[in-house]
From TrEMBL:
Upper lineage: Bacteria, Bacillati, Cyanobacteriota, Cyanophyceae, Chroococcidiopsidales
Highest rank taxon of the organism: Bacteria
Protein name per the record: BFN domain-containing protein
Segment forming the signal sequence: none
Residue ranges of every copy of the BFN domain listed in the record: 1-132
Provenance organism: Aliterella atlantica CENA595
Cited InterPro entries: BFN_sf, Bi_nuclease_dom
One function term, GO molecular function aspect: nuclease activity
Record-linked Pfam families: BFN_dom
Amino acid sequence: MIEMRVAGIAIDAVNRSPIVLLKDGTERRALPIYINQDQAKAIISALENQKPPRPLTHDLMANTLEVWGMVLERIVIHSIQDGTFYAVMTIRQGEIKKDIDARPSDAIALALRTNSAIWVMEEVIADASIPVDRDADEAEQRAFREFVANLRPEDLIQGKGYSTGEA
């Protein structure tokens, strides 16, 4: 799993649909997830730390968790099927933990309100993410190819920074 953060909300230029954009810690990969207008508003209000005069749905859920001594430990976006993302929220009360199925947009909106971690499975990132910094990706690939091309068998012998695993 890779921890991600909400980078913001974007608008698809073609169909004008909102997209929540998650980025990894290195800011090398971005995961765009299409959402609707209401979900975008809920995420934006959390990002901007806006407090409505009366609790909205996600605020109500966060308040309920707090009052009952529950903690949203993390959300995990675990799969994508036919273009639809799936997530679970891990909620803990004392020693008891439960995973609850959720739409990623709802889970993200709640995670932002409770300062909870947002995780994405590697398979989802491999299937649906987009590169953010192509130049850095290409430079890293070039450096790795050069390293492998210049690698000699004697470089792998103990004493050169590598171990054979034998005692």
